[in-house]
Amino acid sequence: MNPRIAAYALGFRSISAFSGPPLLPFRQIFTPRHLIPLSTCHNLGRSLTQHNMSDDDVVDIAANIGHVRQMMDDAIASCERESGSVRLVAVSKTKPLELLQAAYETGQRYFGENYAQELMTKSAEMPDDVAWHFIGPLQSNKAAQLIRRVGLDKLACIETISTIKLAAKLNRAVDSWNEESSGEAKKLGIYIQVNTSGEETKSGVTPGAEVCDLVKQISEECPSLSIDGLMTIGAPGDDSCFDTLAECRDEVAKVLGREPQELDLSMGMSGDFEVAIAKGATSVRVGSTIFGARDYSNLAK
Q1: CB 6, CB 53: distance < 8 Å
Q2: Residues contacting 131, CB < 8 A, separation 6+
Q3: CA nearest 10: which of 88, 96, 134?
Q4: pLDDT of 179 over the 60 cut
Q5: Mean pLDDT of the region 242-265
Q6: Is the distance from CB of 26 to CB of 9 less than 8 angstroms?
Q7: Residues near 105 by Cβ (< 8 Å), separated by ≥ 6?
Protein backbone atom coordinates (compact mmCIF):
# COMPACT_ATOMS: atom_id res chain seq x y z
CA MET A 1 0.00 0.00 0.00
CA ASN A 2 1.12 3.54 -0.77
CA PRO A 3 2.67 4.94 2.44
CA ARG A 4 0.76 8.20 2.07
CA ILE A 5 -2.52 6.28 2.06
CA ALA A 6 -1.29 4.40 5.12
CA ALA A 7 -0.53 7.73 6.77
CA TYR A 8 -4.06 8.95 6.29
CA ALA A 9 -5.54 5.65 7.45
CA LEU A 10 -3.54 5.99 10.64
CA GLY A 11 -5.05 9.38 11.29
CA PHE A 12 -2.29 11.73 10.12
CA ARG A 13 -3.20 14.72 7.95
CA SER A 14 0.27 16.02 7.11
CA ILE A 15 3.42 13.94 7.21
CA SER A 16 6.64 15.87 6.80
CA ALA A 17 8.53 12.69 6.07
CA PHE A 18 6.66 12.32 2.81
CA SER A 19 6.88 14.54 -0.23
CA GLY A 20 4.31 15.05 -2.90
CA PRO A 21 0.87 16.64 -3.25
CA PRO A 22 -1.45 17.10 -0.25
CA LEU A 23 -3.21 14.02 0.99
CA LEU A 24 -6.60 13.42 -0.58
CA PRO A 25 -9.63 12.67 1.58
CA PHE A 26 -9.50 9.08 2.77
CA ARG A 27 -12.70 8.08 0.99
CA GLN A 28 -11.29 9.22 -2.37
CA ILE A 29 -8.15 7.15 -2.24
CA PHE A 30 -8.94 3.98 -0.32
CA THR A 31 -11.78 1.80 -1.56
CA PRO A 32 -13.76 -0.27 -0.85
CA ARG A 33 -14.45 1.63 2.37
CA HIS A 34 -15.00 -1.44 4.55
CA LEU A 35 -11.42 -2.67 3.95
CA ILE A 36 -9.33 -1.18 6.75
CA PRO A 37 -5.61 -1.84 7.33
CA LEU A 38 -5.09 -4.01 10.38
CA SER A 39 -2.09 -1.80 11.06
CA THR A 40 -4.57 0.99 11.79
CA CYS A 41 -5.20 -0.88 15.02
CA HIS A 42 -1.75 -2.17 15.82
CA ASN A 43 0.61 0.59 14.75
CA LEU A 44 -0.93 3.92 15.70
CA GLY A 45 2.23 4.91 17.52
CA ARG A 46 4.76 3.42 15.12
CA SER A 47 6.79 5.62 12.80
CA LEU A 48 5.36 5.46 9.32
CA THR A 49 8.85 5.29 7.86
CA GLN A 50 9.17 1.87 9.48
CA HIS A 51 5.68 0.74 8.53
CA ASN A 52 5.29 -1.86 5.79
CA MET A 53 1.74 -2.74 4.79
CA SER A 54 0.86 -5.71 2.67
CA ASP A 55 -2.34 -7.29 1.46
CA ASP A 56 -2.24 -9.46 4.60
CA ASP A 57 -2.70 -6.31 6.75
CA VAL A 58 -6.32 -5.81 5.69
CA VAL A 59 -9.42 -6.48 7.77
CA ASP A 60 -12.67 -6.87 5.85
CA ILE A 61 -15.05 -5.43 8.43
CA ALA A 62 -18.17 -6.06 6.36
CA ALA A 63 -17.27 -9.69 5.79
CA ASN A 64 -16.43 -10.21 9.46
CA ILE A 65 -19.69 -8.72 10.69
CA GLY A 66 -21.60 -10.68 8.08
CA HIS A 67 -19.95 -13.87 9.30
CA VAL A 68 -20.76 -13.11 12.95
CA ARG A 69 -24.38 -12.29 12.12
CA GLN A 70 -24.72 -15.53 10.18
CA MET A 71 -23.31 -17.49 13.12
CA MET A 72 -25.76 -15.72 15.41
CA ASP A 73 -28.68 -16.49 13.09
CA ASP A 74 -27.67 -20.15 12.92
CA ALA A 75 -27.38 -20.37 16.71
CA ILE A 76 -30.77 -18.69 17.18
CA ALA A 77 -32.41 -21.02 14.67
CA SER A 78 -30.82 -24.13 16.18
CA CYS A 79 -32.46 -23.46 19.55
CA GLU A 80 -35.74 -22.38 17.93
CA ARG A 81 -35.64 -18.85 19.23
CA GLU A 82 -37.22 -15.91 17.46
CA SER A 83 -35.18 -14.39 14.64
CA GLY A 84 -33.56 -11.12 15.68
CA SER A 85 -33.96 -11.84 19.39
CA VAL A 86 -30.25 -11.35 20.14
CA ARG A 87 -28.46 -8.00 19.95
CA LEU A 88 -24.92 -7.75 18.58
CA VAL A 89 -22.77 -5.24 20.47
CA ALA A 90 -19.60 -4.61 18.48
CA VAL A 91 -16.83 -4.12 21.04
CA SER A 92 -14.61 -1.42 19.59
CA LYS A 93 -12.26 -0.65 22.48
CA THR A 94 -8.81 0.62 21.36
CA LYS A 95 -10.01 0.72 17.74
CA PRO A 96 -9.78 3.88 15.59
CA LEU A 97 -12.83 5.60 14.17
CA GLU A 98 -12.20 4.29 10.65
CA LEU A 99 -12.98 0.78 11.83
CA LEU A 100 -16.14 1.84 13.65
CA GLN A 101 -17.30 3.79 10.61
CA ALA A 102 -16.78 0.74 8.42
CA ALA A 103 -18.90 -1.32 10.81
CA TYR A 104 -21.53 1.41 10.89
CA GLU A 105 -21.82 1.28 7.12
CA THR A 106 -22.86 -2.38 7.33
CA GLY A 107 -25.83 -1.36 9.49
CA GLN A 108 -24.21 -1.95 12.88
CA ARG A 109 -25.62 0.47 15.45
CA TYR A 110 -24.68 -1.01 18.84
CA PHE A 111 -21.09 -0.44 19.95
CA GLY A 112 -19.40 -1.31 23.24
CA GLU A 113 -16.53 0.55 24.88
CA ASN A 114 -14.51 -0.33 27.99
CA TYR A 115 -12.92 3.03 28.78
CA ALA A 116 -14.77 6.20 29.69
CA GLN A 117 -12.45 8.61 27.89
CA GLU A 118 -12.50 6.55 24.71
CA LEU A 119 -16.29 6.40 24.73
CA MET A 120 -16.60 10.15 25.29
CA THR A 121 -14.26 10.84 22.38
CA LYS A 122 -15.78 8.39 19.92
CA SER A 123 -19.39 9.24 20.68
CA ALA A 124 -18.73 12.83 19.60
CA GLU A 125 -17.41 11.66 16.22
CA MET A 126 -19.80 8.85 15.32
CA PRO A 127 -23.36 9.41 14.00
CA ASP A 128 -26.02 10.26 16.54
CA ASP A 129 -28.03 7.08 15.98
CA VAL A 130 -25.29 4.87 17.45
CA ALA A 131 -26.38 3.26 20.72
CA TRP A 132 -23.39 3.03 23.06
CA HIS A 133 -22.96 0.35 25.70
CA PHE A 134 -20.32 0.94 28.36
CA ILE A 135 -18.96 -2.50 29.26
CA GLY A 136 -15.85 -1.77 31.35
CA PRO A 137 -15.20 -0.82 34.96
CA LEU A 138 -16.39 2.70 35.63
CA GLN A 139 -14.90 4.76 38.43
CA SER A 140 -17.61 6.60 40.34
CA ASN A 141 -15.71 9.90 39.98
CA LYS A 142 -16.11 9.64 36.17
CA ALA A 143 -19.83 8.93 36.22
CA ALA A 144 -21.00 12.55 35.95
CA GLN A 145 -18.52 13.38 33.19
CA LEU A 146 -19.54 10.34 31.15
CA ILE A 147 -23.23 11.22 31.34
CA ARG A 148 -22.61 14.88 30.60
CA ARG A 149 -20.32 14.28 27.62
CA VAL A 150 -22.15 11.39 25.94
CA GLY A 151 -25.72 12.17 26.97
CA LEU A 152 -28.72 9.92 27.37
CA ASP A 153 -29.68 10.20 23.71
CA LYS A 154 -26.58 8.19 22.80
CA LEU A 155 -25.66 6.24 25.95
CA ALA A 156 -28.00 3.26 25.86
CA CYS A 157 -26.66 1.22 28.75
CA ILE A 158 -23.95 0.86 31.37
CA GLU A 159 -23.48 -2.88 31.80
CA THR A 160 -21.12 -2.95 34.76
CA ILE A 161 -23.08 -1.85 37.83
CA SER A 162 -22.06 -3.77 40.93
CA THR A 163 -22.24 -1.21 43.77
CA ILE A 164 -24.86 1.16 45.13
CA LYS A 165 -22.17 3.86 45.25
CA LEU A 166 -21.76 3.86 41.48
CA ALA A 167 -25.49 3.57 40.92
CA ALA A 168 -26.15 6.58 43.15
CA LYS A 169 -23.51 8.66 41.35
CA LEU A 170 -25.05 7.81 38.00
CA ASN A 171 -28.53 8.56 39.29
CA ARG A 172 -27.47 12.05 40.34
CA ALA A 173 -25.69 12.58 37.03
CA VAL A 174 -28.82 11.58 35.12
CA ASP A 175 -30.91 13.98 37.18
CA SER A 176 -28.48 16.80 36.38
CA TRP A 177 -28.51 15.96 32.67
CA ASN A 178 -32.31 15.97 32.60
CA GLU A 179 -32.43 19.32 34.39
CA GLU A 180 -30.13 20.89 31.81
CA SER A 181 -31.75 19.36 28.72
CA SER A 182 -35.02 20.25 27.08
CA GLY A 183 -37.69 17.68 26.51
CA GLU A 184 -38.98 14.71 28.40
CA ALA A 185 -36.84 13.33 31.22
CA LYS A 186 -34.96 10.14 30.36
CA LYS A 187 -33.69 7.22 32.37
CA LEU A 188 -30.32 5.54 31.99
CA GLY A 189 -30.39 1.85 31.22
CA ILE A 190 -28.14 -0.33 33.37
CA TYR A 191 -27.22 -3.98 33.74
CA ILE A 192 -26.13 -5.53 37.01
CA GLN A 193 -22.77 -7.25 36.58
CA VAL A 194 -22.65 -10.67 38.21
CA ASN A 195 -19.49 -12.61 38.99
CA THR A 196 -20.80 -16.01 37.94
CA SER A 197 -17.42 -17.74 38.03
CA GLY A 198 -16.36 -16.68 41.51
CA GLU A 199 -12.94 -15.62 40.22
CA GLU A 200 -11.19 -12.92 42.25
CA THR A 201 -10.01 -11.27 39.05
CA LYS A 202 -13.59 -10.74 37.85
CA SER A 203 -15.81 -7.86 38.90
CA GLY A 204 -19.45 -8.18 39.81
CA VAL A 205 -21.76 -9.10 42.66
CA THR A 206 -22.14 -12.64 43.94
CA PRO A 207 -25.08 -14.63 42.60
CA GLY A 208 -28.00 -15.06 44.95
CA ALA A 209 -28.88 -12.76 47.81
CA GLU A 210 -26.21 -10.16 46.98
CA VAL A 211 -27.62 -9.59 43.49
CA CYS A 212 -31.18 -9.35 44.78
CA ASP A 213 -30.23 -6.98 47.58
CA LEU A 214 -28.43 -4.63 45.18
CA VAL A 215 -31.31 -4.69 42.71
CA LYS A 216 -33.79 -3.89 45.47
CA GLN A 217 -31.67 -1.02 46.76
CA ILE A 218 -31.16 0.50 43.31
CA SER A 219 -34.84 0.21 42.41
CA GLU A 220 -35.78 2.04 45.62
CA GLU A 221 -33.04 4.67 45.76
CA CYS A 222 -32.19 5.39 42.11
CA PRO A 223 -35.41 6.23 40.24
CA SER A 224 -33.53 7.68 37.25
CA LEU A 225 -31.92 4.32 36.48
CA SER A 226 -33.70 1.54 34.62
CA ILE A 227 -32.56 -1.97 35.50
CA ASP A 228 -32.73 -3.57 32.07
CA GLY A 229 -30.81 -6.79 32.62
CA LEU A 230 -27.79 -8.66 33.91
CA MET A 231 -24.27 -9.06 32.54
CA THR A 232 -21.47 -11.52 33.12
CA ILE A 233 -18.07 -12.30 31.67
CA GLY A 234 -17.74 -15.79 33.05
CA ALA A 235 -14.76 -18.13 33.02
CA PRO A 236 -13.43 -19.29 29.63
CA GLY A 237 -14.86 -22.68 28.75
CA ASP A 238 -17.24 -22.77 31.72
CA ASP A 239 -20.70 -22.75 30.19
CA SER A 240 -22.32 -23.08 33.60
CA CYS A 241 -21.67 -19.36 34.11
CA PHE A 242 -24.38 -18.68 31.55
CA ASP A 243 -26.81 -20.94 33.41
CA THR A 244 -26.01 -19.10 36.63
CA LEU A 245 -26.81 -15.72 35.07
CA ALA A 246 -30.13 -17.04 33.75
CA GLU A 247 -31.00 -18.25 37.25
CA CYS A 248 -30.09 -14.84 38.65
CA ARG A 249 -32.45 -13.24 36.16
CA ASP A 250 -35.34 -15.31 37.48
CA GLU A 251 -34.58 -14.13 41.02
CA VAL A 252 -34.14 -10.49 39.99
CA ALA A 253 -37.42 -10.56 38.04
CA LYS A 254 -39.24 -11.58 41.21
CA VAL A 255 -37.66 -8.71 43.15
CA LEU A 256 -38.73 -6.23 40.46
CA GLY A 257 -42.14 -7.78 39.91
CA ARG A 258 -41.42 -8.38 36.24
CA GLU A 259 -41.25 -11.29 33.82
CA PRO A 260 -37.76 -12.76 33.34
CA GLN A 261 -38.01 -12.27 29.57
CA GLU A 262 -38.27 -8.51 30.13
CA LEU A 263 -34.66 -8.47 31.36
CA ASP A 264 -31.65 -8.81 29.09
CA LEU A 265 -28.91 -11.38 29.52
CA SER A 266 -25.64 -9.88 28.30
CA MET A 267 -23.26 -12.80 28.02
CA GLY A 268 -21.01 -14.35 25.44
CA MET A 269 -18.03 -12.91 23.58
CA SER A 270 -16.03 -13.76 20.46
CA GLY A 271 -15.10 -17.26 21.61
CA ASP A 272 -18.41 -18.41 23.06
CA PHE A 273 -21.31 -16.29 21.88
CA GLU A 274 -22.97 -19.22 20.10
CA VAL A 275 -23.07 -21.20 23.35
CA ALA A 276 -24.34 -18.13 25.18
CA ILE A 277 -27.19 -17.78 22.69
CA ALA A 278 -28.12 -21.41 23.27
CA LYS A 279 -28.18 -20.63 27.00
CA GLY A 280 -30.52 -17.67 26.54
CA ALA A 281 -28.33 -14.61 25.83
CA THR A 282 -30.21 -11.63 24.45
CA SER A 283 -27.08 -9.52 23.91
CA VAL A 284 -23.59 -10.69 22.91
CA ARG A 285 -20.38 -8.66 22.96
CA VAL A 286 -18.10 -9.42 20.03
CA GLY A 287 -14.86 -7.55 19.39
CA SER A 288 -11.77 -9.23 17.99
CA THR A 289 -13.75 -11.44 15.61
CA ILE A 290 -14.99 -8.27 13.94
CA PHE A 291 -12.14 -5.80 14.36
CA GLY A 292 -9.04 -7.96 14.80
CA ALA A 293 -6.61 -8.18 17.72
CA ARG A 294 -6.17 -5.16 19.96
CA ASP A 295 -3.20 -2.94 20.73
CA TYR A 296 -3.25 -1.15 24.10
CA SER A 297 0.08 0.62 23.80
CA ASN A 298 -1.33 4.03 22.94
CA LEU A 299 -4.59 3.88 24.86
CA ALA A 300 -5.69 6.98 26.77
CA LYS A 301 -8.09 5.84 29.47
Answers
A1: yes
A2: 109, 110, 111, 154, 156, 157
A3: 96
A4: yes
A5: 98
A6: yes
A7: 33, 34, 62
